[in-house]
Amino acid sequence: MTTLNYLQGYSPQLLAQINTLIAENRLRAALEKRYPQIHDIRSDKALYDYTIALKNRYLKKSQPLNKVLYDDKITLKKQALGLHSYIAKNHGGKTKSKNEIRISSKLRYVPEPLLRMVVVHELAHLKEKDHNKAFYQLCCHMEGDYHQLEFDLRLWLTMLELEAQA
Predict the structure, then answer these.
(1) What is the C-alpha separation between 145 and 120, in angstroms, rounded?
(2) Among candidates 74, 76, 96, which has minimal Cα distance to 86?
């Protein structure tokens, strides 16, 4: 059995199905059938525009985003796909805050729904800082298939990891 780093905590039955796909060399084909195209959001500007469009659709009244970019320093080994940071600075009695979203550069070459899931996740942190019930409800409000997309992204990352080892 293969070690499935991105799929810890899933049921043994589901992991057995995934291991069968891997053993029969059918994981990529199964994922490509579900997601036949890779997105074309390659630049930081395109990612910013994409993220702002989602924010304006679902979170109009939330705090503004100052920066959205792909980041080469975010490693998937620590299972971080994106980071949301909130920086507050005090200038002469006035507090200025900045919200930034950084997405792993590895996500430049995934299907658009998988990128959208990560962007939605990071946008949800504008309203909910913790991964609690309200946070996941907000994620599902913005992306109805949130949990399925998260699982599929984990499968995609597993596929990439296995191909890199081959």
Answers:
(1) 11
(2) 96
Encode pLDDT of 69-100 as tens digits. Answer: 999 888 665 556 666 665 655 667 666 678 88
The token pair at 117 is 């899931």
Phi, psi (5° rounding) for residue 14?
Answer: -65, -40
Q: CA separation (Å) from 105 to 32, 71, 76, 82, 121?
A: 20, 5, 10, 9, 16
Question: CA neighbours within 13 Å on the CB side: how many for 14?
Answer: 10
Strand order in the sheet with 67-71: 67-71, 94-104, 82-91
**Interatomic CA distance for residues 137 and 157, integer angstroms:** 24
Q: How far apart are CA 120 and CA 135, in angstroms?
A: 11
- The stretch 29-45 carries a mean pLDDT of 97
